Amino acid sequence: MTRSANYLVAIIGRPNVGKSTLFNRLVGRRQAILSDIPGTTRDVLFGEVIWNGIDFTLADTAGLELDPKSPLEQDVLLQTKVAVESADLIIFLADVREGLQNEDKKAAELIRKLGKPVLLAINKAEGSKYNDMAHEFYTLGLGEPMLLSAIQGRGVGDMLDKLIDQLQQIKRPRAKKAKTKSIPPIKVALLGRPNVGKSTLFNKLVGQNRTLVSPDPGTTRDTISMVVEAGDTEIEFTDTAGLRRRGKVEQGIEQFSSLRLIKALQSADIAILLIEASEGIIAQDLHIAEIVLEEHKGLIIAVNKWDAIEKDGKTTAEYDRYLQDKLLFVPWAPYVYISALTGQRVDKLRELIKETWASLTTKIPSKQLNNIIGDAASARPPKGRRRPPQIYFASIRQVNPPTITLKVRYPEEIHFSYLRYLEKQIRQHFPMIGSPIRWQLVKSSSQS
Question: Does 126 show up as a binding residue in the annotation?
Answer without folding.
Answer: yes
